[in-house]
């Protein structure tokens, strides 16, 4: 299936899942592509087309059953399981990630954290002990971890990424403000608040 | 000019600026669309086309002068000035943002932070005093702040956004995991690590 669905469609599915989960929390049981579209600022036609790639989950006229659609989307996105995630870098950002409560009910669990600073290694952040970066490859390989968040300075990020990929990591969320060079079988997503703000200042008057 | 340039092109300019700034830090003075393309995983033809929207900054055969191109891109993106940014929410994430060192040399300066928790109001985070959220509109309007980062829980984010927009905020970086409903003159960018990871798990085997 992955080969047939445009990546841009895949990119919207987590947004649908997030909005549907919210509707469910608000107590709603059924929704429509129109309501979902209004919530997300996406046209209802686009939503129907996107969902039709997966066999369409709704019936014309009666709307989508939210619980069913949530279930299907979780399966498609493979977050009907819990993925272990490694965090590299225990600075302010790494610490905020370790404290974040929003991963577990959406398919992810931070499993371990690594840093190279002797002042940090062995210390605790909440329930996590900071491991030395020298043990990163061993631990990640042993646990079979496929997903990592890189929260180290830009000049260290490529080296960290290379080491992660060597031991089987295939999905990287990169918080370091630089573009990583990775083989085609590895997926990378980027978070750089400055890049996103610079995109908006262009339009400010 | 904004009306004529596709938004997708604008979205790439901060990446060019970031990569060029890095090359400059590494001591390089001249680069090519090929080198930039390799660094960014973008085709050199695309880069030349994107930059041609702004009159093209390079000469065929001799490459781009990095310092000049950096300067031009900073002007185009309007980050040749320093924008004041308000942070709403002084939890783990807001705190990490206040400690982040990477804003100031890229066009932004956090000016103030707000929270609604009596335990937090009046306390310091680094050089910042946490202001009560009741003073948010007054302070933002007085200072003429146009950019805000929302780092409050999802169920409060829309209400906060509405209040920000009322007093002149026109660019929002939303860290709350939900889609905001805003008028067309307001730009929003989103950061939700879970959405970005769910985009990648689809491809994992």
Explain what you see.
Two copies of one chain form a homodimer. By secondary structure, chain A is an alpha/beta fold. Chain A has eight helices and nine strands. Chain A has helices at residues 7-25, 33-40, 44-52, 66-76, 92-99, 136-143, 154-166, 193-201; strands at 30-31, 64-65, 83-88, 108-115, 124-125, 128-132, 147-150, 171-174, 187-190. In chain A, helix 2 packs across helix 3 (44-52). Chains A and B meet through helix 1, helix 2, helix 5 and helix 8 of A and helix 1, helix 2, helix 5 and helix 8 of B.
Short description:
The structure is a homodimer of 205-residue chains. By secondary structure, the first copy, chain A, is an alpha/beta fold.
Strand order of the biggest β-sheet of chain A: 5-6-4-3-7-8-9
Please identify the oligomeric state: homodimer
Distance between the termini of chain A: 45 Å
Uncertain spans of chain A: none
CATH class of the largest domain in chain A: Alpha Beta
Q: So how many helices of chain A?
A: 8
Structural class category of chain A: alpha/beta
**Corresponding CATH superfamily of the largest domain in chain A:** NAD(P)-binding Rossmann-like Domain
The residue-averaged pLDDT of chain A reads 93
Question: What portion of residues of chain A is helical?
Answer: 40-55%
Rg of chain A to the nearest angstrom?
19 Å
**Greatest interface and its participating residue counts:** A-B, 59 and 59 residues
In terms of DSSP E residues, the strand content of chain A is: 15-25%
Gross CATH architecture of the largest domain in chain A: 3-Layer(aba) Sandwich
Number of DSSP E strands of chain A: 9
Q: What profile does the largest beta sheet of chain A have?
A: 7 strands, mixed
Tell me the series of helices and strands of chain A, N- to C-terminal: HEHHEHEHEEEHEHEEH
CA-based shape of chain A: elongated
CATH topology of the largest domain in chain A, anyone? Rossmann fold
């Amino acid at each position: 299936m992955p080969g047939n669905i445009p990546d841009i469609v895949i990119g919207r599915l987590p947004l649908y899942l997030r909005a549907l989960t919210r509707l469910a929390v608000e107590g709603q049981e059924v929704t429509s592509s129109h309501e979902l579209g209004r919530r997300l600022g996406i046209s209802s036609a686009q939503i129907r087309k996107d969902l039709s790639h997966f066999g369409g989950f709704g019936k014309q006229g009666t709307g989508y059953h939210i619980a069913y659609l949530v279930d299907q989307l979780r399966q498609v996105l493979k977050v009907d399981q819990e993925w272990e995630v490694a965090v590299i870098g225990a600075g302010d950002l790494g610490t905020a990630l370790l404290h974040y409560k929003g991963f577990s009910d959406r398919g992810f669990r931070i499993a371990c954290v690594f840093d190279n600073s002797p002042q940090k290694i062995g210390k605790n952040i909440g329930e996590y002990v900071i491991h030395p970066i020298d043990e990163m490859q061993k631990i990640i390989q042993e646990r079979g971890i496929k997903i990592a968040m890189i929260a180290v300075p830009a000049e260290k990020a490529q080296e960290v990424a290379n080491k992660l990929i060597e031991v089987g990591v295939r999905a990287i969320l990169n918080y370091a403000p630089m573009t990583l060079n990775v083989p085609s079988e590895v997926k990378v997503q980027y978070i750089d608040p400055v890049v996103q703000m610079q995109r908006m200042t262009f339009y400010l008057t």
